[in-house]
Amino acid sequence: MSRIPTVAIVGRPNVGKSTLFNRLVGKKLALVDDRPGVTRDRREGDAHLIGLDFRVIDTAGYEDHDAQTLPGRMRIQTEAAIGQADVALFLFDARAGIVPLDEEIGRWLRSSTTPVILAANKAEGRAGEQGILESLSLGFGDPVQLSAEHGEGMGDLFEALLPHIEKALAAIPEEDEDDRPDAPLKLAIVGRPNAGKSTLINRMLGEDRMITGPEAGITRDSIAVDWLWHDPKGEPRPVRLIDTAGMRKRAKVQDKLEKMSVADALHAVDFAEVVVLLLDATLGLEAQDLRIADKVLEEGRALVIALNKWDVAENASSLFNGVKRALEDGLSQVKGVTVMTVSAATGKGIDQLIQAAFDTREAWSKRVGTGEMNRWFERAIEANPPPAPGGKRIKMRYVTQVKTRPPSFVVFGTRVDQLPASYERYLVNSMRKELGFGAVPVRMTFRAPKNPFDNKE
Ligand SMILES: Nc1nc2c(ncn2[C@@H]2O[C@H](COP(=O)(O)OP(=O)(O)OP(=O)(O)O)[C@@H](O)[C@H]2O)c(=O)[nH]1
Ligand SMILES: Nc1nc2c(ncn2[C@@H]2O[C@H](COP(=O)(O)OP(=O)(O)OP(=O)(O)O)[C@@H](O)[C@H]2O)c(=O)[nH]1
């Protein structure tokens, strides 16, 4: 399980912690942990804020406690939550102002080593101005002003969290098994029926099969098979093949081939780092293949396309070029995806395909240093300055990588909300080319700092 940066929302009852939690976790609320041992007083979820992903802990639900036991109960919960967190988000109600319980929580937080961000909730309109002034006495500096209910101030919250999350991320890689280059490559092979998936998988596993059979903990329908691939230098490289054979069989039975194939692909994608989309080269690329390719990239996974049955492909080069062209004409994010040729039947090209999958994962996991990134940014902007809608130039200030796997970036600037999509594409493509991301999906979000009324997600 990879560790991700964790933010604990703390504060007295009714300040809006749950409302903020729900806003940050959004649609994924259904996935909120309901683990035994985690009491009702604390819930956790995967938060997403403008390209930042983190875990959020909410210390909610004190309604049941009577006034006398409340502070004690809260203190235990708050300490447990901040003990697990990289940063505490200390929420108060700007409309109600600072009350003794806020001061008490402030004292607990000051005595802990977890960094604290003070946030004034319910700050929409002007009703919170007095409370915000009062909060300076807590000693945590100017609060971030929010309205969890109306989604205001999320940009400022992002900026306040960013340095803490970056710091936590920087500390994590050593511990994060998935991030290590020698971690097994999680590979899924998807494609239309008859493309040759089973043949390819059997050929890959061959003699090198290490562990076979279903592995606990994947899902009922997917199994993982671990094996060792030997790279061209003879080095063993572990691969975990995510197989969704069960789903494929069911698809056949139900005779819903088209529909299930896409569902099948998506299912496997959940567990994979790199997805190989296998095509029958003699049939070429069809709309459904493009749809799968697009979904894989949309899910943020790395994609490699493999043209199978190359042994019987006639007019090989025109076929290859045809597929390349069809990809270019397809959706913009599919452009530049690596295309390999293989024969599952003879084994030709399989080593190159697996090598390409490893290379693609490397690009997908890559973190670019701030210096290198901003040098690229300046060059890209100089070579092709942003437009000036209405005579006012859009100013680009800086860029930061908020995440890897897939690489995700936030670009800060003025009036970036007016950037044409074509310019955004220019930046993404330039970044892919010049910073070595190849065709892995690169996510780029544009932000105008200090604009509290954007990001009404
Ligand atoms: N005006 C305003 N009301 C808000 C805002 N955020 C939350 N509220 C309201 O404040 C009340 C309390 O919100 P909750 O999210 O339940 O507060 P909580 O801190 O989780 O409370 P406990 O679960 O008791 O700890 C609810 O009625 C919300 O609708 C806001 O930004 N503005
Ligand atoms: N000539 C040739 N035939 C192949 C190759 N790979 C697979 N085939 C044949 O293509 C057919 C389909 O292969 P499978 O491996 O069953 O395809 P699949 O994608 O697993 O099919 P489903 O289980 O229906 O999803 C079989 O008859 C294979 O022998 C290849 O590289 N060359």
List the helices and strands and how they pair.
Elements: E1 6-10, H1 17-25, E2 43-49, E3 52-58, H2 70-84, E4 87-93, H3 100-110, E5 116-121, H4 129-135, E6 144-145, H5 154-171, E7 185-191, H6 197-205, E8 209-211, E9 223-230, E10 236-243, H7 245-254, H8 257-269, E11 274-280, H9 287-298, E12 302-308, H10 316-329, E13 338-341, H11 350-364, H12 370-383, E14 395-403, E15 408-414, H13 421-434, E16 443-447
Parallel strand pairs: 1-3, 1-4, 4-5, 5-6, 7-10, 7-11, 11-12, 12-13, 15-16
Antiparallel strand pairs: 2-3, 8-9, 9-10, 14-15
One guanosine-5'-triphosphate is lined by residues 11, 13-19, 60-63, 121-122, 124, 147-150.
Function: GTPase that plays an essential role in the late steps of ribosome biogenesis.
Binding site for GTP 1: 11-18, 58-62, 121-124
Protein name: GTPase Der
Short summary:
With 457 residues, this protein is of the alpha/beta class. It has helices at 17-25, 70-84, 100-110, 129-135, 154-171, 197-205, 245-254, 257-269, 287-298, 316-329, 350-364, 370-383, 421-434, and strands at residues 6-10, 43-49, 52-58, 87-93, 116-121, 144-145, 185-191, 209-211, 223-230, 236-243, 274-280, 302-308, 338-341, 395-403, 408-414, 443-447. The chain folds into 3 domains: 6-171, Rossmann fold (3-Layer(aba) Sandwich), CATH 3.40.50; 179-364, Rossmann fold (3-Layer(aba) Sandwich), CATH 3.40.50.300; 370-447, GMP Synthetase, Chain A, domain 3 (2-Layer Sandwich).
